[in-house]
Amino acid sequence: MQSLDHLNPFTDLALEATAAARGDAKTEVPGVIMEEKKYEHATVSWVRVVDPVGEQLIGKPMGNYITIEAPQLRRRNRELQEQVGKVLVEQLDQLLDLKENDTVLVVGLGNWNATPDALGPRVTGKLLVTRHLRDYVPADVAGGLRAVAAIAPGVLGTTGIETAEVIHGIVERIKPAAVICIDALAARSVERIGTTIQIADTGIQPGGGIGNRRQALNKETLGVPVIAIGVPTVVHATTIVQDAFEAMASSFAETKPFFQLFRSPESRRKLLSDVLSPTVGELVVTPKEIDELTEDLAKLIAGSLNAVLHTSVTAQDLLRYIN
């Protein structure tokens, strides 16, 4: 039977990858620096991969990864969404170094026909797009609007064109100062679906979380800084199975003969590899309320980007986009 490598499933989140590398002993990971700050409704964690050793240990490129965790987001509380939106604006301001006349390209990655993968296209549909307007609006208004272009290029299966090819052509044509990519992510924990936002200055590899690795979108491939914003919308089915088995093994290892045979992590992984078929290993799952979660997060991210990219967008405008 085929070995299932995803019994330790891939995660798009640097925070989860770092936690896995630290292990139960919570030791420091060489080449990785972690910091944390708590807000009223959210926790912000910074993971900085500073050398090739850290890059190899957690499987993430060198750079900065900011994770905003707000477990109550799934309750669709307006006040909480407003507070998380402001935190997102604050963190984006730290990564983006833009001048007034810079052009920014926002890319909504994903398949708009598949709800768990539709976050990127939904965000681009709610953005204040202005690149085509700056030559026609009054000077006093134009000063508060940065030139923003947006595109949702679709996926290879529906367009027959690699996303990287599309974006590379647009970047060559309009020459933006930065590219911001929005995408749905895969997480290691079910609790992170719809409650966690990751921002990274290392770019993104579309489809990486579910094993469909496409050409990376980063500064090396596009020639300009690439900021990635993502939200977990799926987890691997094997994650749920593995977590349940680990919980049972921990609870019954001393009393049930069956679990006494599988005390070591290696023996448990081998058992699951033998039991789970390759089909189950490829399965990803998402909650039934994913449509509402995706819509709420698309509004939150779009509103935050509008506030960051346009100085004329006020806090009240940000809240309007969240509604």
Mean pLDDT across the residues is: 84
CATH homologous superfamily caption of the domain at 99-240 and 279-322? HybD-like
**Which stretches are low in confidence, meaning pLDDT under 50 for 5 or more residues running?**
1-8
Task: Please name the CATH topology of the domain at 99-240 and 279-322.
Answer: Rossmann fold
Give your account of this protein's structure.
With 323 residues, the protein is an alpha/beta fold. The chain has a domain at 99-240 and 279-322: Rossmann fold, CATH 3.40.50.1450. Helix content is 40%, strand content 19%. Strands 1, 2, 3, 4, 5, 6, 7, 8 and 9 form a 9-stranded mixed beta sheet that branches. α3 packs across α14 and α13 (290-309) packs antiparallel against α14.
Write the layout of secondary structure elements.
Blueprint: H1 14-22, E1 32-38, E2 43-49, H2 52-58, E3 63-69, H3 78-95, E4 103-108, H4 119-124, H5 139-142, E5 147-151, H6 156-159, H7 163-174, E6 178-187, E7 196-200, H8 219-222, E8 226-236, H9 237-252, H10 257-260, H11 265-275, H12 278-282, E9 284-285, H13 290-309, H14 315-322
Parallel strand pairs: 4-5, 4-6, 6-8
Antiparallel strand pairs: 1-2, 2-3, 3-7, 7-8, 8-9
Helix pairs in contact: 3-13, 3-14, 13-14
